[in-house]
Description:
This protein is of the alpha/beta class. It has helices at 12-21, 32-35, 48-57, 61-67, 78-83, 178-189; strands spanning 2-6, 25-29, 40-43, 73-76, 84-86, 98-103, 114-120, 128-133, 138-140, 147-152, 155-160, 165-167. It has 6 helices and 12 strands. Strands 2-1-3-4-12-11-10-7-8 form a 9-stranded mixed beta sheet. A 3-stranded mixed beta sheet has the order 5-6-9. The two termini are 13 Å apart.
Amino acid sequence: MKVGILALQGDFSLHKKSLDTLGVTSIYVNKEKDLSNCDSLIIPGGESTTMSILIKNYDLYNPIKKYSLNHTIFGTCAGAILMSKTSNDSRVLNFSCINVKSKRNSWGRQIQSFTDTINLANDFEVNSLKTSFIRAPKFYDFGSDCTILGTYNNEPVLIRNNMHIISSFHPEVHNNNLPIYKYYLNMING
Length: 190
């Protein structure tokens, strides 16, 4: 298995470190042809409007949209915003991979970033994890095809559908968040 990590902007190198820890081969994706060399894709956190500009400049919107029809994608923070059906911000490109609306910076601006414990569904090897929220989105108005896998203060922060998974938080920031990656990797094989 080879996982692609969109490497236009954001914390893509920390995702690679997490995958390396699990012994998973990964490549950086910044061209359309890179997508054909990976079994799945991570769209990292970063800044969703900047990422949208870069995706457009690198002509990756349509290739990623097409890729999402047959491959699992994991979007974290800004990546989750891009994967949602809308963020109510015309500057953001939305792939509509997952039937969720997102609201940018809902947990606060950069200065209000924080680390705290989230609760996980029974599908994980642990029932809680400490993780980081950095200008994180909130998710709302999700479809019946979505399953909530994790919550923070009763708010959904980790959601999946049949093929894709999104998180408000940054699992790559903490080594203890490897159960999130293991779950995602099992989705690729499932």
